Amino acid sequence: MRRTQRTGIGLIFASLFMLAMTTMQGCAIADPYNAAVTPEQQAYAIYGTFTIFEEAAVGLVQDTAVPLSVRQAIQRADRQAKPIMDALLEAALEVSTARQEVGSGGDIAATLVALDAALTRSGPALANLIAAIKGAN
């Protein structure tokens, strides 16, 4: 149950981040990943970017004007990326929780290692989804 709640909170954070980015265009940071200070901020930026592309993917997969082979490639890329991105979000939430618990003797090192691994896996997964989407254009 706790895992579901944290994932839900992470989705809310990612959604709020993306909402802020779209509603404050005059003040928005053009590249939130490079503006991120902490690894979990980088993770949230990647996850937010993923959700934008995943939304585009849904529209393309439903568009019968897009060739079937391209729609299938997008679906494959999304099926591969989704669990990786969900793990990335979970790892970022774990680090955020560990940072809050550090004052009470918590250890953040292991969670940072897990987040670093998730960040490493997320790059190629996101790139594959973007490439599949570009194939539709």
Radius of gyration: 16 Å
- Outline, from the CA principal axes? elongated
Q: What share of residues are in beta strands?
A: under 5%
- Unreliable spans: 1-13, 15-27
Largest sheet: none
**SSE order, as H and E?**
HHHHH
Number of helices: 5
Give the class from helix and strand content and strand pairing: mainly alpha
Give helix % range. over 70%
- Count the beta strands: 0
* Spatial gap, N to C terminus: 41 Å
State mean pLDDT (0 to 100 scale).
80
Brief overview, please?
This protein has five helices and no strands. It is an all-alpha fold and 137 residues long.
Topology:
Elements (H helix, E strand, L loop, with lengths): L1 H22 L8 H4 L3 H24 L5 H34 L7 H26 L3
Helix pairs in contact: 1-3, 1-4, 3-4, 3-5, 4-5
Structure description:
The radius of gyration is 16 Å and the shape is elongated. It is 80% helix and 0% strand. The chain is an all-alpha fold and 137 residues long. The model is unreliable at 1-13 and 15-27 (pLDDT under 50). It has helices at 2-23, 32-35, 39-62, 68-101, 109-134.
Task: Name a few traits of the molecule.
single chain; 137 residues; mainly alpha; 5 helices; disordered N terminus
